[in-house]
């Protein structure tokens, strides 16, 4: 029997049972797609990361990501979790590792600090789709149970991506954000129409000096009713804010902290760094802390 080494990691936090939980399988070589999907379904996190030996000289590891229902091309919090678990298991010093994913080979920085680690992930290329038309906007507002007056006027509703796309929806009030009770069936139907599974609702309504935004992310079409803290939403949000000129860019650089998970008591913080060239996002990085919940093994 194969003994599979499993970590459970909470990402974007240093406090256990906060942030976003992810499963990590450190020795996934030899696992079939069916095996991985079964393990992800059993662990029942929004994503589980599977680390394989590298298949080429350009990368150190290959990582694949599964929700409880499907494989996804990339995942921010599960990448933070995967490299944090790897650092813990192998007692890594500070280094830069290159991971091969479905969206390409990405550098990930492991920084050792006071017997712990911070992980910085370079995300995929930033893209931004045209703003929703009136019909799409009407369907979205209906599914989210929002009124047009709830929307932040300067924030167009658009699909943004750094490898795994999300719809960006800016609203005025954090109270409204925390009271959202979306119609999940309607969101699934809309996902099929627009070709995007994730909906990131955010607000600038923050009472925390070092926090620019609060957000919530819903992706029922891929089995995620609500994701606690989403790297692949906060990262693209940075690019979205820059490209729409909603923030000040200083010397080709923009950085902010986004918080998420408040309403479901899994609060976490994503640090987002955007390198800007000619007014457009050139490179998006997300940084986060993490904490180990448990380590175990599974015999297959």
Automatic annotation (TrEMBL):
Transmembrane segments: none annotated. Coiled coil: none annotated. Keywords: Isomerase. It comes from the Bacteria. InterPro entries: Phenazine_PhzF-like (IPR003719). The keyword Transport does not apply. PANTHER family: BIOSYNTHESIS PROTEIN, PUTATIVE-RELATED, PHENAZINE BIOSYNTHESIS PROTEIN. Belongs to the PhzF family. This is PhzF family phenazine biosynthesis protein. It comes from Chryseobacterium lathyri.
């Amino acid at each position: 029997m194969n003994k599979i080494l499993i970590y459970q990691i909470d990402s974007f936090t240093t406090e256990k049972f906060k942030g976003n939980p992810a499963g990590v399988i450190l020795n996934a070589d030899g696992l079939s797609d069916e095996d991985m999907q079964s393990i992800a379904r059993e662990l029942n996190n929004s994503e589980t990361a599977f680390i394989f030996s590298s298949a080429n000289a350009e990368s150190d590891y290959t990582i694949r990501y599964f929700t409880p229902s499907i494989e996804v091309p990339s995942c921010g919090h599960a990448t933070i979790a995967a490299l944090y678990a790897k650092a813990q298991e192998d007692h890594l010093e500070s280094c830069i590792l290159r991971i091969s994913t479905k969206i390409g080979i990405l550098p990930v920085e492991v920084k050792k600090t006071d017997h712990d680690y911070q992980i910085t992930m370079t995300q995929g290329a930033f893209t931004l789709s045209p703003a929703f038309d009136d019909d799409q906007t009407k369907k979205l507002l209906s599914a989210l149970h929002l009124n047009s007056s709830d929307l932040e006027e300067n924030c167009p509703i658009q699909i943004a991506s750094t490898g795994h796309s999300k719809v960006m929806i800016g609203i005025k009030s954090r109270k409204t954000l925390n009271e959202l009770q979306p119609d999940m069936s309607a969101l699934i139907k809309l996902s099929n129409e627009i070709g995007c599974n994730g909906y990131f609702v955010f607000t600038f309504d923050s009472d925390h000096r070092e926090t620019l935004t609060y957000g919530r992310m819903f992706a029922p079409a891929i089995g995620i009713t609500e994701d606690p803290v989403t790297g692949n939403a906060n990262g693209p949000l940075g690019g979205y804010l820059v490209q729409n000129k909603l923030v000040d860019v200083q010397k080709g650089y923009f950085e902010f902290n986004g918080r998420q998970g408040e309403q479901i008591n899994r609060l976490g913080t994503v640090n987002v760094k955007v390198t800007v060239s000619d007014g457009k996002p050139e490179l998006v990085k997300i940084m986060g802390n993490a904490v180990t919940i448990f380590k175990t093994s599974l015999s297959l």
